[in-house]
Amino acid sequence: MDRRTFLHLAAAPALLAANENPTYKTVSHFSPVAVPGMPGPFRGQVVRVHANTVIDDSSEKVNTAVVEKMIADGMTQLTGAKTGKDAWAAFFNANDVVGIKVNCSGAPDIKSRPEVVGAIVKNLTEQGIKPNQIYIYERFLDQLQSVHYERYVPEGVNILAIETPRGSIAGYDPKTYVEVNFFGEDDTRSNLVRLVSERFTKIINVPNVKDHRASGVTGCLKNIAYGNFSNVARSHMNEKTNTLSFIGTLAAVEPLRSKTVLNIMDGIVGVWHGGPFSVDKKFRYYPKIMMFGTDPIAMDHTLADIIEQKRLAEGALSIYDHSMKNIDRKTDKNPRTGQFLREPGHIEFASKLGLGEFSKIKVKDLEV
After folding, report:
1. Predicted confidence (pLDDT) per residue in 189-246, tens digit
2. CA neighbours within 13 Å on the CB side: how many for 69?
3. Global pTM?
4. Torsion region of 185: left, alpha or beta (phi above 0 gives left; psi -120 to 50 gives alpha)
5. For residue range 265-280, what is the model confidence (pLDDT) as tens digits?
6. Can you identify the CATH homologous superfamily of domain 6-11+23-367?
7. Long-range contacts of 79-86, Cβ-Cβ distance < 8 Å, separation of 24 or more
8. CA-angle at 58, arms to 55 and 64, nearest 5°
9. Per-domain residue ranges for the chain?
């Protein structure tokens, strides 16, 4: 990596009026590689794999063999490789140190399921990557521990929370950060996870199929952005949030952008309202899908369509609704109101930063 320090002042594209643009100062010691991981080699491409037998709706027991088949088929379809092992070899080799960014914000009920993460680790070790070169990580310890990934992966795989205890800044890189003042908050800096800048050579992003009360959806972009920086919840303190521009701005920071080489979206179980922390089972459902791609914009645009269709089928407020009359900050139990003005436009905004393809998307559907 080029160790030059550069400053980047990111002005919002035309999606925001000029007087609404937060001024972002991004400080990093890293320049992008020749072909950054986002959008990667498969720009605008999404592989969506469905398997009706992957989970039992009543018990929520996952069929690991079906998960492994979904991953093998998804990866070979994405890369054009003849075998699953060859598909993984297109991204990883034995020298890599791989971070697997899971999403446990709705755990223990909603999370990157351990059967999926276990299958990912299995494929990495088949490339010759040693268990101690693999890191399953999340920001908060209580969320991570509730999933028990250690039961599904070989001994030696690192399972780490960044903030131990919560609020600790020791796990963040003081030299790589985004600075912005949203609402007059005291702490205006968000720092990158130290492992990303100092340890990982590659990152696999494993988000869920989830509604989000502020950003509209929690997909690839939000998991990789808010999941890799400190002090991010400040973007949505009020009904009108800054999630529209903050998510993409964080995701574009180097070396996070260059190192995030693969997105595997776990849509076995989904949340169509009240996300990301919903504990109300009536807002959960079972899409029974997984999606694969290197382009987070194409994947999240596809995700937004999935969540919007489900919400409309349930008579819920559209994720694109921007009327203050439908805001109710007191509860998230009513799917016909919102606690924030949702900003699914963050996906298009991030495309303006070069992170992927928003319009010309090719979705390949497979059935297992």
Report:
1. 999 999 999 999 999 999 999 999 999 999 999 999 999 999 999 999 889 999 999 9
2. 13
3. 0.94
4. beta
5. 999 999 999 998 888 9
6. LarA, N-terminal domain (3.40.50.11440)
7. 79/42, 84/123, 85/123, 85/126, 85/127
8. 20
9. 6-11+23-367
